[in-house]
Structures are given as structure tokens and as C-alpha cells.
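cache lookup: miss for this entity combination. No prior model stored, computing from scratch. Input as submitted by user K.M.:
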Amino acid sequence: MLQHLIALILRYGIPLVFVNVFLEQIGAPIPAVPTLIVAGALARDGRMSSTSVLTAALIASLIADWIWFLLGRRYGYRILRTLCRISLSPDSCVRDTEATFERWGMKSLLVAKFIPGFSTVAPPLAGATKASTLEFLIYDAIGAFLWAGAAVASGRAFHHAIEKLLQKLEDLGWWAVAFIGFVVALIVLIKWWQRRTFYKKLRVARVTVDDLKAMLDRGESPIVLDVRTRGARKRDLRRIPSAIVASSPEEVAQQLEHVPPSNPIILYCT
Amino acid sequence: MLIDRGYIEVRPLFGGLDAWVDAGYPIEELLE
């Protein structure tokens, strides 16, 4: 079975790399690094071309990222929030990514692919900030090259170990397939359970805009904190009436210096 | 961070500022 699979990789190696990288970069939970490492190992043994693997990865990555960039440019922060819903904490996902991007600017694209979670979110964020397309493509291409290059180089460096592993898996036959399937299913199940539990807690904790409006109308005095980044506030000057603005943990601490711990606090970002 | 500082009721606003604006509730303009 695995013999056929490896033969398939060798036969359709480059299109497989392309599809795998594209799917990962577009947001599907299918990691491309293992494929790139195996491709690198096969390239070291002369069974694939490193240049072709890198070119396929680079083009696939650029196409997927450019789609996200255009969506970010068109739909702004809404697309980012939709994307961040995949993550465990949508609010902090948007805010943290935005803060990282604001700090490093387009240079963050150089390392974005090495940071889990940031990789898919950075291109639409660049689009939402109305960054220049040419600048985006240059930084994104360098970032994609570094990322794919590192994976392929690792495969080339550890090709003996990878060959041995592939051989062992081949010897195990169907048992290897069953074992890998079981491990993948277990990881997905654990992640799903963690997310389900988290969302259950979050649903209880979150307050809807109608609830907040009713609280304010009743004269209750929750502290409403606007915790958007400075850049986000610059782009959108609106705020909920009476909301306290605080971008950093220091500002939050300063603003809440005289607020007793029993006081309800409601915070919002985008 | 707020919970660590002793605040016992810290709740995120579902949908954030966009949801508040979409619901047609009043807003203020920041002076920045």
C-alpha cells in the first residue's frame, strides 16, 4: 500500500506539493511541511528536483496568499474575523495578529509562515491595511521561499532518517496506514473536544450587544473597555459611548487603577 | 490579565464594535 503511495508521490510529486501547499495556505488543516520534507529527502536522492519542488511551493503559496490579500482588501477586518473563527479565540486572534503586524509591518510576512496561526491571517491583514500589492507580493514571496526552502533543506539534510522511516512504514504495510490514521483521528478528536469545551464556556461568558445596551439603559455601570490596537482605532474612530480606550496592558492597568474588582468589565476589539 | 488582577466579571462583547454598529446603537467619535 505505502509502496503505491510513495510511487504516487514520485509520479505526481510536484502537483501534489502544489495542491498541498495551496490547501494549507488557503486555510485547510492539512500541513504541507511533512510533504516538503519528504520531497526534500527524495530530491536529495535524485528522485525529484529541489528547484521544481520550491517553485511549486512558492507559486501555490503566492496564489493562496494573494487570494486572502484581495479578500482582506475588499472586505477589511470582517474577513479577518471570519478567518479567526477557526482559531480558539476569535477576539484575541484578531487583536494579537493585528498587533504583531502593526509592530513589524510588511516585514512580518518574512516570518509569518513559521508562526502557527499567523501564516493564514497575515495576508488578509495586509490587504485590510491597504498595503501596496507589489510590496506584499515581494515580502510574501521571500517569506514563502524561506519557509519552503527550510523544509526542503531539512528533508535533504535528514534524508537517511526519512528514508529509513519510509522504509519502516512500508514494511509495516496496512498497520502503518491504520496507525497513522488512528493518530490523526485522535488529534482531530482532541482538538474538536477542546474547541467545543472552550466555546461552551465562551458562550456563557460573552455578552451580546443587546445585553450591553440594556445594561447601559438601566443605568448599570459596567466598565466598557475599547482594547483595539492604536492602528485599528486610527482606521476606525468610532467607539461605544463612554468606552475607555486602552491598547496595552499598562494602559489597561492605569485606566482601571480606581475601579474595584467587583465592577463588571466588558471589552471589545474590532 | 484582568482576571489575574482580581476582576471577577470580565466579559468579551460578542461581535465587537461591528456588531454594536450593525445593531444601530449610538456611537461616539474618538478625537485621535
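stored under new cache key. Chain A has a mean pLDDT of 81.
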